[in-house]
Amino acid sequence: SELSFPKMDKVKHAILPKRKTSIPAVFQSHIHYKQIFKAALTEQLNIMLFELSQRLHNALSKVDMSLYTPVKDERSQGSCVPLCNHMHPAKLVMVKKEGPNQGRLFYACDAPKAEQCSFFKWLEDVTPTQTKSRPSAVLHDLKSIGAYLRSQKIALYEECQLLVRKAFETQTQRYSKFKKFTNSPASLDGDSKSKLYLKLSKKEHSSLYSKDDIWVVSKTLNFDPIDTFIASSAFFGPSSNNEIELLPLKGYSPSNWRSNTCVHALLVCNASGELASLRNMEEHFNPSTLPLIPYLLKMDFHSENATKRVNKRTFVPPAMSLKSSLMSGPVSPEVAMGLAKEMIQRFSLNPDQATSLVHIARMMTSCGNTKPEKEHQSFPITVIRGVFGAGKSYLLSVVILFLVQLFESSEATEGPRPTPWKLLIASSTNVAVDRILLGLLDLGFEDFIRVGSIRKITKAILPHSLHAGSGNENEQLKELLALMKEDLTPAEKIYVRKSIEQHKLGTNKTILQQVKVVGVTCAACPFPCLNALKFPVVMLDECSQMTEPASLLPIARFQCEKLVLVGDPKQLPPTIQGSESVHEQGLEQTLFDRLCLMGHKAILLRTQYRCHPALSAIANELFYGGNLIDGISEQDRTPLLDWLPTLCFYTVNGMEQTERDNSFYNMAEAHFTVKLIQSLIASGIEGAAIGVITLYKSQMYKIQSLLSGLHCEALEVKPVQVSTVDAFQGAEKEIIVLSCVRTRHFGFIGSERRMNVALTRARRHLLIVGNLPCLSRNRLWGRVIHHCKGWENGLQNASQCEQQLNDILKGYLEEWKEKEQSKRKEK
């Protein structure tokens, strides 16, 4: 389980490997757990390194670099670089403008812009002067090689400097009981007394870089393993002098790398999730600090001797001493159950929501040492499975109010606790965290802090936030002041102003220690402002979308004792960058999935309050086995327009096409979708009520481009949300237009989880735009089309209804022009 950047002979004709590490449902010990997940995460990173190595060597094999020498001699004999009109060597440039030539390379004049001549020649048109067997493209200098590789989407930084600097032995003052101050050396990263810096050869926008980027650094252009090491970036971007501090991961030996060595570097990917998870397991997944460990490993831990040795040489510490642990509940069962019943009535919880609250009440009062026959009551874990629109966020807001009252009751009756009761709300996305906190505000609860980055937090939450991920205090204030200059609503301006006031006073920083409720994304858990805090109760939302190592970040780091997991395994799985698995027991298997396999019974929230019953019926049949209950009626979801069907499939005779990044688009569908949006807005529908979902990024960009190119004051299309399925999880709109794109093959439009999300975002109208002959061949889409046929005007040909849309649009624009003219006359 070590990182490696493979050499050419290992990748040249090889097939990209798939992930093989299998994650079991139960683990023998915490050591076994760490070994498995370390292997899984390292394997994933190695596949990304393998893929980059393969692309690099394939790209280099297509060009002739025999004329390149490390010595900088631009006019070396035999050079095939053409001369511009000034009779100077031309420079190699890549086409950046969107179009058919995007990414192609050409030669142009290398003089300053004001003095450039009109010389132009495509790279492939430059004929070599040497032997006939050479490839058509001849690259004689590093600058050209770098430009060529970047055109192949390989981020090469040629001729960088590797700097090795001695770390300053700064003296820090530390308070002592016996001496007023004692001096101690500052701690350094690892055991090294020196630090590594990569001085980049060119400046690029800071947004390209982040903390925990993976870099491969080599003395040679073919990245020979002997002269190559792998490292991660220590900070979020280059310094003012374009240097990146590196933390070696594999292959670095100080004796092989002197300061000021000329190196080439490859930016592989950002691995913040993987590296943060590895550090978290190493530092915090420990039985002595995490009482929840036995319950995460297996269900029958009571039957085993906690002090059993695996072998005579290795001591395994007890998994947990249940009696001495911090697992006791805050109040008596009678008080907790009484409060739960009161909350159920006050907030009108449905039977499934009520069951969830009662289960959490029991969990909070259990001590973890009950008899085996009552084990189901003693587990400090509650698993809730909520279908789309089931009121999960509302339920969690009520649960938070319930827990806060329990904490207060505990402190009033039993006094302060060694680890004070605090609740952490965590999720993989900012939207999910903010949705719960907005629910708390709706219920009148404001005593919480949201930790995160300024631009990622919902404006209404900003006054209650601590911006710990945005650099120093002054930078954070500048960012808030910059927000005020943006296009904000009056309400949003009030929130930002209030946030600026709070920031200047330092109020939220002070009360972070006192508040009982904190909201954060899993990625923000390592923020320094949270270092000293412990959260005995952790609530994980949308955990079906998180890998288990990501879920473990808030659990292990903050010494969780009681855990609430909420998710829906029928919706989108975690996104695993850069690799596929040969089975379903890899990193795709979430903590939610594994706990259910282990034997935990999830409480199902069956009642949906979002979709028109006709729309929920599709998902109910295809994905939920008929278990769903509609919490709203057809009368609650009446049509917004007389001419607009609740459910409709518009068949478009378009053709799927592929972009350079292998993402698909369909221009006929894009044009019809935009026409449909225009007609809806012309009929009086607010743009914010419309959402467009597509399964491909290229199609999303095409639709966004067409909408932004309308330039029509009469139609306010800017508020229309156009996103991929992944970005729409958890969101909803009154009207959803779903563009399917594919006309020949299904691709992942046939994925059940993606289909489920795409089909369950609409409250009143679901308008599907696709190719009928193609989609009818798929079993699932065939059933969707069958549902559409059951509705009046539920199946329409786009070409036939286009005239109706044109008439609506024409009538609206004429009326708008008349109103504008009459306004001018009045003036």
Automatic annotation (TrEMBL):
<feature type="domain" description="GRF-type">
    <location>
        <begin position="84"/>
        <end position="126"/>
    </location>
</feature>
<keyword id="KW-0597">Phosphoprotein</keyword>
<keyword id="KW-0234">DNA repair</keyword>
<keyword id="KW-0862">Zinc</keyword>
<dbReference type="InterPro" id="IPR027417">
    <property type="entry name" value="P-loop_NTPase"/>
</dbReference>
<keyword id="KW-0547">Nucleotide-binding</keyword>
<dbReference type="InterPro" id="IPR041679">
    <property type="entry name" value="DNA2/NAM7-like_C"/>
</dbReference>
<dbReference type="InterPro" id="IPR047187">
    <property type="entry name" value="SF1_C_Upf1"/>
</dbReference>
<keyword id="KW-0863">Zinc-finger</keyword>
<comment type="subunit">
    <text>Interacts with DNA repair protein RAD51; the interaction promotes RAD51 strand exchange activity. Also interacts with DNA repair proteins EXO1 and BRCA1; the interactions are increased following DNA damage induction.</text>
</comment>
<protein>
    <recommendedName>
        <fullName>5'-3' DNA helicase ZGRF1</fullName>
        <ecNumber>5.6.2.3</ecNumber>
    </recommendedName>
</protein>
<dbReference type="GO" id="GO:0043139">
    <property type="term" value="F:5'-3' DNA helicase activity"/>
</dbReference>
<keyword id="KW-0067">ATP-binding</keyword>
<dbReference type="GO" id="GO:0005634">
    <property type="term" value="C:nucleus"/>
</dbReference>
<dbReference type="GO" id="GO:0035861">
    <property type="term" value="C:site of double-strand break"/>
</dbReference>
<keyword id="KW-0539">Nucleus</keyword>
<keyword id="KW-0413">Isomerase</keyword>
<dbReference type="InterPro" id="IPR052800">
    <property type="entry name" value="DNA_Repair_Helicase_ZGRF1"/>
</dbReference>
<dbReference type="InterPro" id="IPR010666">
    <property type="entry name" value="Znf_GRF"/>
</dbReference>
<keyword id="KW-0479">Metal-binding</keyword>
<dbReference type="GO" id="GO:0008270">
    <property type="term" value="F:zinc ion binding"/>
</dbReference>
<keyword id="KW-0347">Helicase</keyword>
<dbReference type="GO" id="GO:0005524">
    <property type="term" value="F:ATP binding"/>
</dbReference>
<dbReference type="GO" id="GO:0006302">
    <property type="term" value="P:double-strand break repair"/>
</dbReference>
<dbReference type="Pfam" id="PF13086">
    <property type="entry name" value="AAA_11"/>
</dbReference>
<dbReference type="Pfam" id="PF13087">
    <property type="entry name" value="AAA_12"/>
</dbReference>
<keyword id="KW-0227">DNA damage</keyword>
<dbReference type="GO" id="GO:0016787">
    <property type="term" value="F:hydrolase activity"/>
</dbReference>
<keyword id="KW-0378">Hydrolase</keyword>
<dbReference type="Pfam" id="PF06839">
    <property type="entry name" value="Zn_ribbon_GRF"/>
</dbReference>
<dbReference type="InterPro" id="IPR041677">
    <property type="entry name" value="DNA2/NAM7_AAA_11"/>
</dbReference>
